[in-house]
Specification:
The protein is an alpha/beta fold. The protein has helices at residues 17-31, 49-54, 66-78, 89-94, 97-106, 134-138, 152-164, 210-222, 241-250, 265-276, 296-302, 307-318; strands spanning 2-7, 10-15, 35-39, 59-61, 82-88, 112-116, 145-147, 169-173, 194-197, 202-206, 228-232, 235-237, 254-261, 281-286.
């Protein structure tokens, strides 16, 4: 599914990363008969229709029972399968947190936890369906890789890597339309940032759907004479320590940007830099509050997860 928005002088096509998710899952399943999908009565919202049609015997629908869903996925992994456990991120990471911790991470099972429609993508369904805590919760769990791809190409690459990785991985799959961001020939590596724009004045570090917005903010700042570096951070755990330390050393400070509580990416970056290379920081995302009910666009504007909001945070850091 695609849409377009006016991006300054030109239009950009927006893509649904769930389309890349299901296409990649089908591709992986065709190449490896160990690949199975486990869902919580969310075949539609997970866009798993094509997979269900192609591999009806390899789709396990446990119903609205997220704890069972992760447990079933762990059992399948223990039996030699490669399970992709897919559910709305708000339910996967809240209702089944103990199973994510024990059955997936502590047991070090080869399984891929797919958090669908994360952040505030459900908009009008309100705080019960917003998944703004997931990055903060999950990055505290030892042995769990936590990824938030920024566009369809990166989503596909993360999923392919996760399918081959011998351990548990959480992948945030965006419902919200995003433009293509990663450069041609890009190859995903966990713990490796992508420098999308060089800059010497301030660094914008973003993850997930916030990456394209950080790039837009860099354009806004450039028009004002501010040279902003933009780092895309596809994994919140592990972080790219070298890139962050270099940014803290070479620019005036760091602005983190995420569609989540700022204790996710922002907290992780702050914890790293405070012992390695202390630097001024600003945090763009959801502060210590429940996100209210409203349209997706209104919510992003409300919390300043926009080009204007990110640019304002950078100006504040620079004292402008």
């Amino acid at each position: 599914m695609t849409a377009t928005i006016d991006a300054g002088a030109s239009e950009r096509v927006l893509h649904d990363c769930r389309d890349a998710w299901v296409a990649t899952l089908v591709e992986l399943a065709e190449a490896d008969d160990r690949v199975v999908a486990v869902v919580n009565d969310s075949v539609g919202s997970s866009k798993l229709g094509p997979f269900a049609e192609r591999f009806p015997d390899r789709l396990v629908n446990v119903g609205i029972a997220e704890q069972d869903m992760v447990g079933v996925g762990a059992g399948l992994a223990n039996g030699g399968k490669v399970p992709f456990v897919s559910a709305a991120s708000c339910f996967l990471t809240a209702r089944a947190m103990e199973q994510v911790k024990v059955d997936a991470a502590y047991s070090q099972h080869h399984m891929v936890l797919v958090g669908q429609s994360p952040g505030m993508a459900y908009g009008e369904l309100g705080p019960t369906h917003h998944s703004i805590e997931d990055l903060a919760w999950l990055r505290t769990i030892p042995g769990l890789t936590v990824a938030a791809p920024c566009d369809p190409a990166e989503t596909a690459q993360v999923l392919r890597w996760a399918a081959a990785h011998d351990g548990p991985v959480f992948v945030r799959v965006a419902r919200m339309g995003v433009p293509d961001v990663v450069p041609e020939g890009y190859r995903f590596e966990p713990g490796k940032a992508v420098t999308l724009r060089e800059g010497a004045d301030v660094t914008l570090v973003a993850t997930g759907i916030a990456v394209s917005r950080a790039l837009d903010a860099a354009d806004v700042l450039a028009a004002e004479g501010v040279d902003a570096r933009v780092l895309s951070m596809p994994t919140v755990k592990p972080l790219d320590e070298a890139a962050l330390v270099a940014a803290a050393r070479e620019t005036a400070g760091i602005v983190t940007v995420e569609e989540a509580l700022t204790s996710g990416l922002g907290g992780a970056v702050a914890e790293l830099l405070v012992t390695r290379q202390p630097a001024p920081m600003r945090f763009v995302g959801v502060p210590d509050t429940f996100a209210p009910t409203g349209s997706v666009q209104w919510l992003l504007e409300h919390f300043g997860i926009t080009a204007a909001g990110i640019a304002a945070a950078a100006r504040d850091l620079l004292g402008r």
